[in-house]
């Protein structure tokens, strides 16, 4: 109980939960983690069985309506935006059904084309499955396979083909691409310009960051230590 109260108080202080006087409850158990601490787990399975979405627990919506009617408390729908139009996850829910939020459509239509000043419109992401390193190359969608091979050879890399299928590779690539999108978006918002201006920065930042799967940054695996930019050099001769 002491551990439970400690964790609940922490969640209350962070604003993740709030006090409730509901007669309904769910069992709580603690699972020991690798570091010796305990993770609080709540079993909602039985509670979910008596829950009617989206209104709440069984008979609770009906009891609420009876109470409102008895006290003669009525809602004027012309003043209740919730009942008329609800925005949820980029969609609008109203009496006509579910549709895409028009404001989201307008935002997409106003997006500037990804063509850069230098004519690049695609980012080629090359991932090394062993070291988890990645290279981000600005290219054009119209490049031929010969042009792609030429760019690849300029990196000084060798292509080792494999017939085995590695499903985890696809997940790794997706995470890297998402990380790259976030970095480029942040750079453009803060500094402006084209995304190809920041690819070298994103390349260095990604490969010089810690990766839990290898226990170090990819650059450290290559060079024996983390790389440093000129603004981070601490000693003469580095």
Automatic annotation (TrEMBL):
Protein's name according to its UniProt entry: Integrase catalytic domain-containing protein
Gene3D superfamilies: HIV Type 1 Reverse Transcriptase, subunit A, domain 1, Ribonuclease H-like superfamily/Ribonuclease H
PANTHER family with a match to the protein in the record: PROTEIN CBG26694, PROTEIN NYNRIN-LIKE
Residue span, Integrase catalytic domain: 125-226
Matches recorded under InterPro entries: DNA/RNA_pol_sf, Integrase_cat-core, Retrovirus_Pol_polyprotein, RNaseH-like_sf, RNaseH_sf
BP term (GO), one: DNA integration
UniProt GO molecular function: nucleic acid binding
């Amino acid at each position: 109980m002491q551990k439970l109260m400690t964790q609940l108080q922490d969640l209350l202080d962070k604003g993740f939960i709030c006090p409730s006087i509901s007669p309904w409850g769910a069992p709580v158990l603690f699972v020991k983690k690798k570091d010796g601490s305990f993770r609080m787990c709540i079993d909602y399975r039985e509670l979910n069985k008596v829950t009617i979405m989206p209104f709440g627990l069984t008979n609770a919506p009906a009891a609420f309506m009876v109470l409102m009617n008895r006290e003669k408390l009525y809602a004027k729908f012309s003043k209740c935006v919730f009942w008329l139009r609800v925005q949820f996850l980029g969609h609008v829910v109203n009496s006509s059904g579910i549709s895409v939020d028009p404001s989201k459509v307008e935002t997409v239509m106003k997006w500037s084309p990804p063509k850069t000043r230098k004519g690049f419109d695609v980012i080629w992401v090359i991932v090394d499955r062993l070291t988890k390193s990645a290279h981000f190359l600005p290219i054009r969608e119209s490049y031929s396979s010969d042009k792609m091979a030429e760019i690849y050879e300029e990196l000084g890399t060798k292509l080792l083909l494999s017939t085995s299928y590695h499903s985890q590779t696809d997940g790794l690539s997706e995470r890297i691409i998402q990380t790259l999108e976030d970095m480029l978006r942040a750079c453009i918002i803060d500094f402006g310009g084209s995304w190809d201006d920041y690819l070298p920065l994103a390349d260095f930042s990604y490969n010089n960051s810690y990766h839990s799967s290898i226990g170090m940054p990819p650059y450290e695996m290559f060079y024996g230590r983390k790389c440093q930019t000129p603004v981070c050099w601490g000693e003469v001769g580095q």
